[in-house]
User: Fold these one by one.
Assistant:
Number 1:
Amino acid sequence: MSSYTRVLLQQHPKTTIEASDFKPETLPIPSKSDLGEGEFLIKVKLVSLDPTLRGQMSGRSSYVEAVKLGDPMRAWGIGEVVESKNSDFTVGELVTGIVNFSEYTVGSGKDYRKIPNIPGVPLEDNLGVLGLTGLTAWWGINEIAGGIKSGETVLVSGAAGATGSVAGQLAKIAGAKVIGIAGGKDKCDFITKELGFDVAIDYKSPDFKKQFEEATKDGFDVYYDNVGGEILDMSINAASPFARFVMCGGISQYNLDKPQPLYNVQKVTSKRIKMWGFIVLDHFDRFPEMIKDLATLLGTGKLKGKTHLIEGPVTGLPEALKSLFEGANTGKMVYKLTN
């Protein structure tokens, strides 16, 4: 009987993610007779690596149930149906949904959707600009921020990352001046020269605060927050009255024992700032609409997708995930299984 490998969560990370937090396990590949009614067997091809996975490893559930010790780590991914007891999902079809850090995953219809065939679109884009990160950017800009008016100024942190890079482009398409915060010259050049951001601020530069003050001296109307912490605090201080804050993520805080405090929070009241958190999974019914819009922008060249693709065996997933929190990626980090 053939076997496959999956990666289990062995211990909760104390601060940063380490390979020792995981361990591999080898099991027999399930056969069709092992599947329940409505289930299908997926051969995993691509795994999406996102900051939200850090929260699932903490042992504390939030909007997504925490991964229990001894269970396989999981993430959004893409795979091919290789066995099926579900008439809606046939062998050979490509599907996307939650997969394990594993060569094979058993799924059911309610948790997966088929990947549309869009000519010229790489498969990995279905985890990036057409995946959860792109959908998150779309919802944040169009629904949480209430849409962007031409001439407004939009500040985006994590601007070279999967969500921030799309959010900034959507704001630019709407006619905004877009200021992006990214780490290092290469990423700053990427968002200005390739994506069309108007200004890039390098948070790794010794004069970061001076750059920030200069770029935001006239305030801004919308802040798309992907990092939290000190940059969020600085943004509250610099925002224009009645600014809209799209609270998407806080990657700078995920590996800390104690999150950094916000010293300027009182200014949320005095400036009448609107701060709104959201989870795009709450709006699954709107996914087709969002994907259609993003695909149109992608197809016409108005929107660019950037994938940081890593290839390797399933056992390499922990190191790849660790590198995400070290800032290794430009754009969406996707892991391609080579097993």
Number 2:
Amino acid sequence: MGNPPAVLGPRITIVTPSFNQAAFLEETVRSIRAQGYGNLEHFVVDGGSTDGSAALIERLSDGIDWWVSESDRGQCHAINKGIARATGDIVAYLNSDDTYLPGAFDAAIAAISAPGVQWVAGGVLGFGSDGSACAPVHEWHMAQPPRSLAECLGGNFIAAQPGHFWRKSLFDRHGLFDDSFRYLFDIEWYARLLAAGERCAVIPRPVASYRFHATSKTVSEGDKFEREWERIRAQYLPRVPWLDQPRVRHLVAMRRATVRYGAALAAASREGTPAGWREFRSAVAGYPPSLATRVALGAARRLITGVRA
């Protein structure tokens, strides 16, 4: 008798959106291949890059099941194009400047195979464009996803995007990412799932690495994220149980104040200490309880001692 046929695990579809990221894309693709997972579908959706990305993708195409390089409406639209074609039981997206860690797929499958689990998130390590570790994100080593819509809207969670995996059936039931969001379409998706009663289970280890560099949206456009946070809260806060709404409003007010204290330091660096104090007073006036936080006290100390550019 011959050997029995190998039993493949669930099919995984990974979508990699990319635009002018040729410097990092190959490392991303190779981190996916290095998983050594047999039942894999990988799509690369390039937005019409002008930096040689298409030639690079062509060179790497033996391990890519489908790719395209054409103008699109941005990152979210690119991801949705890939998910719409996905045949995998499990779906994730990995941006073209991030990587998976060894064993990520096995860990994700183990977690999502538990009864009733449809969505999982693992830890994420931060690193710089030169490959060095970023100490400020050490707390991302273990994911702490939002356990409720209230926690999500309050920003009271730690679960960086590259660590997430979903059952494809979630997209079939709840729709694709909302591409009217440029920055926080993933957060809107989490809120949508939580509002519908879905919950996220934890993968108890880091599964991906998140690259910080000057052209990443997280670094270059961080100040614009808050506008989309406000939009998400306006949309979903009415769906939070009324007993939880005061706590969410407190968390939101504290987050806004934290942003303002950061703006105070930035203003002091740009325009001088008086401008910083004006922003600081505005933050306190916006939510007086925030004055007792470490963020506020730290900002005040730096304004007193002098903020270096």
Number 3:
Amino acid sequence: MWRLVASGLLGLMTYGCTGPTSSPTTANVPNLAPGPPLSNRVVLATAPPATTESNDNRMLGQIDIFQLRPQNEYLIGIDAASGKFVPELATAWSLGSDGRSYSFQLRRGVLFHRDNGEFTTDDVVFTWEQIAAPDSVSSDSPYWRRVVQRITPAGSYELTMRLDPDANFAYLISRAGNGMEVRSRTSFQREGAPSLNTKPIAGTAPYQFLSRQQGAYVRFERVPYEHWNLMPDFPEFEFRWIKETSTRLAALLTGEVHLATLSQDLSVQAERQGMRTVRSRVAASRIFLNPQGIYVRDFDALMQGGDGGWLYPDSPLGDVRVRRALQKAINLDEINRSIFRGKAEVMVHPALHPTRPSWNPFFERAFKDEYGYDPQAARQLLAEAGYGPDRPLETNLHLTEIAQFPGTLDVTEAVADYWRAIGVKVNLVQMDTAQRGNLTRQLRFDNHWLINGSSTDALTFYQNNWGPVFPAGGNPGHGGRDPEMTLAFQGLRPVMDETRLTPLLRAAGEIGWRKHLSINLLWLQAEVMVNPKYVADWVWPGSISGTWTHVENIKAVH
């Protein structure tokens, strides 16, 4: 069952494509009879973006960028059925012999939306300038500022990127990553910087942006010309933001929406009333809890051999005994059965999996003792850390539902109950998503937990969650910031040889696992409930952060 997207550069130092420009991203998508679909607009109902709504790619991180993905393409694509790299806006790419440069050959004749001309190397340069700009607040902006040193075009259809060597470059520049959604310089010059009241900078995908109503929906329309890749079945596509799962179910049953993300209990109801479950093709999604408050105070001092200190030295979350106690208080098997109908997989490690070369069998052998459900041991760990009935541990748990993972709100509330059962005072926090995102970026939370979800490879997980890799950019990411883990990541980051990288990934994973830098929850396969009167099939990988990608592949009933 388990397949992960290929990581970074591994096995993909050179890729070429010859022949017709038809895309392999549509593999296994059925060819249905011609004719108009039963609905002009296909609507996918899901929870609102977890952090930010925006028409500016530079405001969005890996989880929330899904709201603009329908209008954008990347140099390297991701096959919808296998999750593997395929040509997209680049027909070929290769790593230079110096190990510090990447060359790309671009697809010719690709058009930007809204009559903004043909895609060329200048638009790749512009896209990088946008994401690397000092005022870009995307969580991936610091990466692009640091890794790409310069881009040298050789005419309109070939370019070379000079790099600070980074093992994850190919992964992050692909459709699996964030920040390099190719955008039009001409569009920016003609239309200006985007806002919620204006259109995004033009992209090249089969769908182009149509409209947005904040808090309600974002809509796209099929391009009015023959797209180089494919023409979607449905003339329009819409993300409909509906927070409550019961309301999403009602909208699905009445035909108001045609696809919906539902909790497992409501999925049973939907199936009984004729709806159908469609699953992603690649199982690679995780949910976990990240501490907010463990941050290195002086990153530069750490990199120069000092200890760096802590930004919040009094945070209880800085004590590994506390983090381990909170982990051992949670009955993951019970959560899996009661919320996910047993379909999930208990997470032994949040970044690594037994099917990957970097796995260490020790994790499975030691899991029960180190991570397994044991409320008595959890209480003992809290007592050792100085907490008990007369001085209870107090912490804050944010109530959020991740759009891509229905049921995460139920999981969060269940976690709160487990923690209370061992004597923890849990404050449930409800907050506007924009405010939460802003405070997270500013490192303002000192004793908080956020549920998170992603589909990234191990290297990206480490980067985003376990080390203060790019504090100077003002975008620290989401998770625990441990000095030992940071130094380990900095050591493996420039390694671009698979045989050398695998043991380094394993060693870094051992550090994070031993220090309980995240709280393990579950591995999931993405599911969506569809109304078979309107939707025949949807082939999408589900292995990309944000989950809801390749919407151009949604097949209509004619």
